[in-house]
Automatic annotation (TrEMBL):
InterPro entries: DUF4232. Residues 27-126 are annotated as: Disordered. It comes from Kocuria subflava. The lineage of its organism: Bacteria, Bacillati, Actinomycetota, Actinomycetes, Micrococcales. It comes from the Bacteria. This is DUF4232 domain-containing protein. Residues 1-22 form the signal peptide. Residues 31-56, 71-98, 105-126 have a biased composition (Low complexity).
Amino acid sequence: MSVRQHRLMFSAVALTAFLALTGCGTGSEDASAPATTAQTPTGTTEGSSPTQSGSTASPEASATGSTPAQEPAEATSTPDAPASAAPESTPAPSATAEQHSESDSGGAASRPTTTAPPGAAEGGAVASVENCTTQHLSATVSPQEGATGSTILALSLTNESAQACKLSGFPGVSFADGNGAMIGVPAERAGGSGATVTVLPGGSASAALKQGNANNYGQVCNAHTSDHLVIYPPENTEALTVPYQTQACGNPKIMQLEIKAFGA
């Protein structure tokens, strides 16, 4: 064997040993290097030593390099478990939403319907009864009973409209002559305020009117013959007139008339 061949063989052995030692700290890329380098002297030498040295280094290098190669594979497989678990939990809200949707639709179908109460006006508001107005009323006065020195009259107001209305409180009453001028003073209110009376179409409500005789007061009465009574329904400023002739005192200090409230 020549000196050149010994040198080549020595260099191959040294290189192989160096690569085997450094292969412990390198990855799979470094492990493949000595296998290729070791094959170079195998083709140029006839001895078996370089070939055995190269084959000895190659298992060590592959065993050393296989350990780092497997560790990344295990590391990459670890996140797969939570990733695969996430899609499995996704349908749960959907199923819950469907259940709520079915529950809501069932609840809407079972809700009871309401109807407006009898007598409700259009739009759902309950119709209210308004005060009777003068233009929808007519009046009458009729004697009820007499007593010494006075007469009790029934003053009645009739609802001439197509809607019910209400009367409450005292009407205003006074004597008037043929020209419409008031004689004496208006009737004095007597008793309590009464109660609200609902007057249906065509119906009537009455209040008691007491009239004192003019003779009771002598000449200080200053008597005049009345032509009618002037009647103001409660809460109205327009009056009704009723034909009524009697001796009415013109003295403003004499209270010849007394009126009670409706519903008293």
